[in-house]
Amino acid sequence: MNSRHTLRFTRTTVLAAGAILLILRFAFISASPAHAAASTDTGFVTRQGAGLYVNGQPYRFTGINIYTANLRDNCVNSYSGGYDNSVLDNDLSQFDSATGGQSRVFRAWFFQSLATTNGVRDWSAFDHTLAVAQSHGFRVIAVLANGWGMCEAQGATGRNGLGYRDISFYQDGYKQGPDVGHIGGLSEGGITSYRQWVQDVVSRYADNPTIFAWQLMNEGNAGTYQSNGTPHFTCPSESAANQALLSWATDVTQLVKSIDHNHLVNVGTLDNSCGTRASDNIAISAVAGNDLCDYHDYSSSSTIMPSALSYMITQCKLIGRPIIVDEMGINQTDPAINGDLTTRAAEFAVKMAEDFQAGVDGIMPWVWDGSGQHVDRLFEIKPGDPVLAELGQFGMSPPVAPSSQAGPVSSPSPWSLASAGPTAGSASTPTPGTMTAPADSVRSTAAPGSSSQMAPSVAPTQLIINPAGTLSTWVSTLPIRAVLRAMHVVVVTVSKL
Asked: What's the rounded Cα separation, in Å, for the pair 399 and 101?
């Protein structure tokens, strides 16, 4: 090798070594949670692009739907659980023990009807639920209204028919009050418009880190209710429905953000329904102020991942939004399950592994039944269900449990169990013949309007379970991949000398 070749080789080697060091430095910094987001010890769940964080640490979770947390015999017939007893405390104790403390998020109804007693605002149920959740280290996704009207307008009549929130609600009805209530009257319904309700509840709990996120609607969609013959819903115009949902979502998300600078917001739509088909739903998720995409998966056990969910994962990452599956249900009467809870748990595990590997940030099965009162027999998850261990395996404990709460607007320290406010009067018994369960939209193997297209039955990529604060597997291999690429460049370059 002559001197010119020696000089060229030396220069190339130095440059390659420098490149390796820079790549490694970048890779390790990128993979370091300390650099992933600003380290602010607030205890609130935050969003950085398409990722969730708590105190600067990447955050992934599993949890459960406990929609009954705020109920006091005012939604489900014969359901006697309520905020003013030990039901929720026992529920969280049982669930936490069964999941090894690794699955500490639940989703619950925070409807106006559940904060109204005899025509007067009553925050007792909500104060109690958040206090109990905080005492167990849980976070709560608070759902502010139901697109189906159930638990809000059960049996009521009106322009929205049976309480279903049709296109007229999203066009301007949400600004009109009082919001439609139960047939029993104001003691079970709203006393303000939906928009005013959102402003009131968000203002009260804006500084409470126990709340994970505000969900503006459960399964919002903008069809038209038809009462002739058998009650049903139609979609005369997808574009008109989408415009109504976009307008409502833009207005209300901005309202919430103008009041509350701490919490995430999720619009809450029913994918592939009226006004929410494919890209139309992505457009709603992309509105300013919305932080999360969400999806409800009631596909059959043989469908590992619905094609619509796969589409949403890809598109939501492109618009910079995390995505959560905040309802995942497997029907116990599915022929592949046939009532075998061990088989069902295994099917849940396969779905969760595939979802997390594909980029989902949180999964919450439907639905918890700790009291044995059968809130939803087909989908219920009770103490002793083997799926609870799976939730613990896939879950990740929050880096820091929700901290002590700050007081709400115009009310001293409602977080204390001892100061949960006046005991609300007993609500009227739901009208006989009204829906008893589920309180969500009626479930079948595939929920109405949800996407249950068959996806190829492919074994999921192996996922490291419960990484205990580390980043995902592919991030941890970045330095190795970078070194291999740099070494390849050096070898190729030197071989040409």
From this structure: 12
Closest CA to 372 of 33, 80, 19: 80
For residues 192 and 144, the answer to whether their CB atoms sit within 8 Å is no
Structure tokens belonging to residue 445: 């193997």
Q: Which two tokens stand for residue 34?
A: 């300390």
The Cα 250–Cα 284 span in angstroms is 8
Strand pairing partners for 266? 215
Q: Please provide the CATH number assigned to the domain covering 39-466.
A: 3.20.20.80
Give how far Cα 182 sits from Cα of 78, 112, 157, 194, 458, Å.
Answer: 17, 11, 9, 15, 46
- What pLDDT does 118 receive? 81
HSE on the CB side for 370, CA within 13 Å? 22
Secondary structure class of 223 (helix, strand, coil): coil
Please enumerate in sequence order all residues whose Cβ is within 8 A of that of 322, keeping only pairs 6 or more positions apart, or say none: 47, 50, 51, 52, 291, 292, 293, 316, 361, 362
Q: Determine the Cα–Cα distance for residues 93 and 70; give it in Å rounded to an integer.
A: 17
pLDDT tens digit string along 315-341?
Answer: 999 999 999 999 999 999 999 999 999
Longest dimension (CA), the chain: 97
Q: Which of 464, 463, 469 is nearest to 397 (CA)?
A: 469
Structural contact between residues 431 and 183, judged by C-beta atoms closer than 8 angstroms: yes
Pick the closest to residue 323 from 315, 333, 332 (CA basis). 315
Query: What CA–CA distance (Å, rounded) separates 189 from 184?
Result: 8
Q: Rounded to an integer, what distance in angstroms lies between the CA atom of residue 316 and that of residue 350?
A: 22
- Count the neighbouring beta carbons within 10 Å of the beta carbon of residue 485: 12
CA distance 201 to 205: 6
- 426 contact partners, CB below 8 Å, separation of at least 6: 72, 73
Q: Of 172, 142, 153, give the one whose Cα is nearest residue 113.
A: 153
* Token representation of residue 120: 């007067």
Q: What residues of the chain score a pLDDT lower than 50? A: 2-40, 155-161, 181-187, 404-442, 444-497
* For the chain, domain boundaries: 1-31+476-497, 39-466
Smallest Cα–Cα separation from 42: which of 205, 206, 209?
209
Q: Residues 188, 213: contact at Cβ < 8 Å?
A: no
- Alpha-carbon gap, residue 407 to 422, rounded angstroms: 17
- What's the distance, CA 450 to chain centroid? 15
